[in-house]
Design goal:
single chain, 121 residues
């Protein structure tokens, strides 16, 4: 199983970045996918979540209206479009996959290795 993030880097305040998360080794279309982030000295926090079909999304208040989560199940890839970036968006961004078996309630989850996003002038 692999989750590989890419697209991080340095952006100026007000700028944009697009993160990608390429999945392999599991049935991507069965999994709810999320982006988390962790800034230095802070706890990891949920940024955005998308349902397995892509129909339902949810965002942290701090990124609503600026970030957009999406997925392409045919490509086993999830995205995070980040616009109007702020210095406080600086963090390592992680891809997270989660599945709960509806019959057994067993949970499987996986994390990516993270990609650094730095917003600075």
């Amino acid at each position: 199983v692999q989750l590989v993030e890419s697209g991080g880097g340095v952006a100026q305040p007000g700028g944009s970045l697009r993160l990608s998360c390429a999945a392999s080794g599991f049935t991507f279309s069965n999994y709810r996918m999320s982006w988390y982030r962790q800034a230095p000295g802070k706890e990891r926090e949920l940024v955005a979540t998308i349902s397995s079909t892509g129909i339902s999304t949810d965002y942290a208040d701090s990124v609503k209206g600026r970030f957009t989560i999406s997925r392409d199940n045919s490509q086993n890839t999830m995205y995070l479009q980040m616009n109007s970036l702020k210095p406080e968006d600086t963090a390592v961004y992680y891809c997270y996959a989660n599945y709960k078996n509806p019959f057994t309630q067993a949970v499987r989850d996986y994390w990516g290795q993270g990609t650094q996003v730095t917003v600075s002038s």
